[in-house]
Amino acid sequence: MDLGPHAGFIVTAYAAAIGIVAGLIFWVILDRRHLTRAVDELEAQGITRRSDRAREEKA
Amino acid sequence: MALIDLANPSRFLALADRVLPWLAAATLFAFALGLGQAYVAPDDYQQGATVKIMFIHVPSAWLGMFAWGIMSLAAVGTLVWRHPLADVAAKAAAPVGAAFTLMCLVTGSLWGRPMWGTYWVWDARLTSVLVLFLMYLGVIALWRTIDDPARAARVVAVLTLVGAINVPIIKFSVEWWNTLHQSASVLRLDGSTIHPAILGPLVVMIVAFTLLFLSLHLAAMRNEITRRRLRTMLMMRADAAAGH
Which pTM does this prediction carry? Predict the structure, then answer.
């Protein structure tokens, strides 16, 4: 594909877009991993929310 | 399941877990289709191949405004019904909206340099989009400044609704003022002025970007609900340690 004399601008624009989307995806995944680990650690220490306890008792 | 049931965070989490894989798959499919069509789309008779920047610039501009629209609806939910899920939706949308607004500014600059001869000009469209980006940063900073999520949500909701005035200003800035930015060419009362060979891929890319936004927003909402659960558990641990 011939992008003409302004190929550098086109490629940089797409690279920037890919970088921003990748950053968003990594942020969401890493945040999830960190939060899940922290919740699991607290649950392992026996700390559960009232609603979780009620759900477990119901089950 | 009734719609009102989704207002329960636990049910919302269960639904998000079920929906997210399908949404992600639909996003990938739409991007594959859109990028394929964009690749073979003809060059513009005036702008040449730089028109390909439009396939990422226009969708990111749309999402920058769409995310603020979502935040504004959530702000009404926060102020009228004081519903925590509305707070969660608003907080989760802010960083995603900011990222797409940044993408709009960067890709617009890179399109402007070869077409206008400059990366930036202080005209009404570019300046109002920059204001939108700064407002996103302000909202994100405000969320981080106030510890109590419910109080932060109310303050942010007011700022969000005030900032919503900027969205129609962005849309109509090219008609109200004399700008270097071109006037509307996609959404017009008398129909789009873009050739179907370019408009087709653009519409598919807008759908793909919107699906991406919905996926990221849903995932970020799921994270925010977990963050609030973690906060509650940390407070319970602190209470237990203090002997309450």
Answer: 0.91
Model pLDDT, residue A54 = 64
Chains A & B: contacts with CB separation below 8 Å: 97
Of B76, B52, B196, B103, the closest CA to residue A21 belongs to: B103
Task: Tell me what pLDDT residue B211 has.
Answer: 98
| Phi, psi at B92, each rounded to 5° | -70, -30
Whether the Cβ atoms of residue B118 and residue B112 lie closer than 8 Å to each other: yes
Pick out chain B residues at pLDDT < 50. none
Q: Which residues 40-59 of chain A have a CB within 8 Å of chain B?
A: 42-43, 45, 47-49, 51
**CA–CA distance, B162 with B72 (Å, rounded to integer):** 9
Tens digit of pLDDT for each residue in B23-78? Answer: 999 999 999 999 999 999 988 888 889 999 999 999 999 999 999 999 999 999 99
Nearest by CB to B110, which of A5, A12, A28? A12
Residues making up chain B, counted from first to last = 244
SS3 content of chain B, % helix, strand, coil (to 5): 80, 0, 20
pLDDT of A53 reads 64
A2 in contact with B, Cβ within 8 Å: yes
Supply A27's token pair. Answer: 């942020």
Angle at B185 between CA B41 and CA B33, to 5 degrees: 30
Whole-angstrom Cα distance, residue A32 to residue A28? 6
Q: Check residue A8 and give its pLDDT.
A: 95
CA distance B31 to B35: 6
Distance CA B209, CA A20 (A): 13
- C-alpha B7/C-alpha B18 separation (Å) is 16
User: What is the rounded CA–CA span in Å between residue B149 and residue B83?
Assistant: 12
Q: Please measure the distance between the N-terminal and C-terminal CA atoms of chain B and give it in whole angstroms.
A: 39
Please state at what angle helix B54-76 crosses helix B84-116, rounded to 10 degrees: 150
